[in-house]
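User: For this week's homework, look closely at the record that follows, marking any run of repeated tokens, and judge whether sequence predicts the tokens.
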Amino acid sequence: MKSLKKISTVQLYMMWKNLSMSLLLLIVMMTLSKLLPPICSPLASLACAAYLYTTLYGIRKNTGNTCALLPYSIFVCLISYSFITIIMNLMALWHLIPLSGEFVFFTDPFIPSLLLNPICFFCITILYMRRKKLRICVECRIGGSASTDQGRLGNIFTHESYLQLRNLMLMFGLLSTAIWLYYLLFYIKINANARDWYVFTWLNVITFILDEFYFMFRYYNLYLDLKENNEIISEEEIADMGAQTYVRYYVVCGNNVYVDPHAVEDELSGNEVIDTPFQTRRSVNGMTMPEVKRIIGQMTGVNDGELKFFFGRRNPVLRNSSLLRYFYFIEPEPDGSLPKLRTDGEWMDYDVIQHIYATNHKRLASLSVSDTTRLATIILTEKIFNEEGFRKSRLKSYNPRFTLVDVRNSNLDFQDDKWIRVSMFNSDTPFFRIKRWWRKLTGRMNNKHKENQWL
């Protein structure tokens, strides 16, 4: 399944483009605030936020093509700056709070960077702290774009998006400190001169431009490294590949799963991981159940097993490719022993797998970690909560477990994301009833779930 780990040149470019566009809009906003009348500053910020909103809408319609975390963060920053500035000015206009002239856009000079930089710093800090709980990131993961499902590309998305946020935190923190120190120590509140405007406006613009060039060189070098390691795939190669269907099988006997404890996931590092040895690829768009069962029967030498569909997703890089997962349940030998299979590997108790998953998940292949997370989340959530998100038992200490026998006997649809959404929003969530009422009021509870994209 090496093709699934390839990184698209377009997606790598889009990662830099989103960053550049976000920084460019900040530059446009600062420049317009200086060139236009002061009252136009929040209007310019709202216009830039509106443009980012349309971009975010386009990204979310094409989930998996790129990471929308940075544009979303800048969108939040611009919206926050606009409304905080407007509210402060209205309160000053109504004589509710005293406000220095540099913060009032009805007067000149109005210095937007005194508010913009601290607001951006605090907004991005909060977003970074909540980065794994943000709705835009949760929807991305549920939609099949988790880093483990995207292979190396998803790992790069995750690492780089967090790096970009840390970079912006540092940048806005330093700019806030520098500009406020200058304002308090050197600025004379009689008339702003050229040096003052250089610090208050053009220092921001120059910093944004330098930051954009830094990431330009960073991603170009990243592209060269990936190309040297043969991890890049072009749009032409993707188009020439045609339809591809990849299948992973988890062969189960009782509460034991058949694994290869010496699988190599990353050929560059050569690190061994635990993974299923049953994987195949066919140059077709989808496969029938009899065909899927015939293949696993040949791999294992056991033809009378029970095949059960787990779930599948369309690959975000190879758009004509999909990755399907199946369970194949087989019976033990008449004497109760585990059967000998054709493919090299060994039987491992699933309790051991769960212990490794909980204590040192890096010993497992990334796709195995992703699949185990989904399996455990759905089964345990269904045992604890009902479909409305309320606990079935009032005992909050209730901590159920599950076995592969439970999986075999379960009638749950693991393709459906319903129970994953319940796991993220249930009665254990603070102020659950209030939030649930608000979601019903705004119609979010009635929205249709996204269609799963594996067919």
Summary: The two ends are 19 Å apart (CA to CA). The first helix runs from residue 9 to 35. The CA atoms of residues 5 and 110 lie 51 Å apart.
